[in-house]
Design a protein that fits this description.
two-stranded antiparallel ribbon
């Protein structure tokens, strides 16, 4: 199975350098839609409902303290199967031209992030996991 780093590196290869926030959201949407289209996870790393939206902590640790990310050293875009590349390509075609803030605002209005943060005050830190099942259930309904 491809890793979150491989997916992130593929996103960067296709889109070029971008803000860390935008990269996190594109990786999140890639995972979410892959659970719908392929009925399985794109990668195993967890995604959490942080105050700024969905974040994969494993990936965050790789680009921490960087506003703009151009490369993920641990990532190898070549590790993605043709099917996984199609998923990411479709996500990039729909979400890729939007700003990081637009993607963040969108994710804040969607059930997977909202449900994971149930009981958490607005603006408060959280490490509640957004489960693949929650992603699949919500995005399949769209």
């Amino acid at each position: 199975m491809a890793s979150v780093y491989d997916v992130a590196q593929y996103v960067l290869k296709k889109q070029g350098a971008m803000s860390a926030m935008k990269l996190q959201k594109l990786v999140y949407y890639s995972q979410a839609w892959h659970t719908v289209w392929a009925d399985k996870q794109l990668f195993k790393a967890s995604i959490e409902a942080w105050k700024d939206g969905p974040v994969c902590p494993d990936l965050w640790r790789e680009h921490a303290n960087q506003f703009r990310v151009a490369q993920i050293a641990k990532g190898d875009a070549g590790e993605l199967s043709a099917r996984k590349k199609r998923t990411v390509d479709q996500v990039l075609a729909f979400y890729g031209d939007h700003s990081a803030q637009w993607l963040s605002d969108l994710s804040h209005a969607e059930d997977p992030w909202l449900d994971a943060r149930t009981g958490t005050k607005a603006g408060a830190r959280s490490n509640a996991v957004i489960t693949p099942k929650a992603m699949q259930r919500y995005y399949a309904s769209l």
